[in-house]
Amino acid sequence: MLDRELAVVFDGSLEGFLCIVFAHYYDRINPLAIQKEGQYQNTLYSEEFFISTDFDKAARVQKGIRRKISMQAEHYVNYAFWSENESCYMDIFRYLQLGFKLGKSVDCYLQEDCVLAVHKLARYVGREVHLLSGFSRFAETKQGVFYCSIAPKNNVLPMLAEHFSDRMMNQAWVIHDKVRKQAAVYNGEHFVIGNVPGDVNLEYNDKELQVQELWRTFFNSVSIKERKNKKLQRNLLPLYFRKSMLEFIPPKKEK
Asked: Looking at residue 2, what is its pLDDT?
């Protein structure tokens, strides 16, 4: 097959994206634009082409990144991919192209726009994952499943699910991304991610409600009014994280 300049569409998964990289080197497809399925906008200058996800091909590309570039490059790609930046796919694609040419030294070429962009996106996503790993709040429902809701700026649900599947490996839980209407459901052995409504009705058990009230009491009692520094607090704990944090949610008034 000759080199073809195409607007490439994929299913939105990391594996699907890696298959685009595979198609570039093995099928000589040169993407002019990369879009998730359902978000593609037709252009006059290119041909549209859908690339299916093949997990074997994706695994070969991932192995190639580790072997020919570096483990650090794999980390940058994995984190930058889940950002909500519209240009991230082409930035990551060009970063990998350069990485396969230069090897592990690619991360020193910060004068290249794609390298700098991928580094910035990876740090941005990584910071949100780090903060949510500590600020996420789980509450026990009457069914014994622990539920946590989040509203992240980036699509960090897969990485959070990986984190909590190691940390809470013997407990069934659900992490609900209300922004993207997705949830990671863990049964004590493995997790799956699927689409769910943005709002769900949950009933917590009596013990959980008691713990919540005790935590609110503790949080308020240790607070020193004269030493409040709202600016510093917002820097350490951005406002959008607080929507799902018990200590910042006023208790429901009894009817």
From this structure: 45
In a domain, 253, yes or no: no
Q: Where are the alpha helices (DSSP H) in 81-148?
A: 88-102, 113-135
C-alpha pair distances (Å), 9 with each of 17, 47, 70, 78: 9, 11, 27, 19
Q: Is the pTM for the entire model greater than 0.85?
A: no
Give the 3-state secondary structure of residue 83.
coil
172 domain residue, yes or no: yes
Residues 107 and 166 in one domain: no
Domain count, the chain: 2
Largest CA distance in the chain: 71
Nearest to 239 by CA among 131, 161, 90: 131
Span 3-54, pLDDT tens digits: 666 789 999 999 999 999 999 999 998 998 999 887 655 555 556 789 999 9
- Expressed as residue numbers, the domain containing 96 is 4-128
User: With DSSP H G I counted as helix, E B as strand and the rest as coil, what are the percentages for the chain, rounded to 5?
Assistant: 50, 15, 35
Question: Is there a single domain that holds both residue 106 and residue 194?
Answer: no
The CA distances from residue 38 to 27, 50, 87, 148, 239, in Å, are: 24, 11, 16, 28, 31
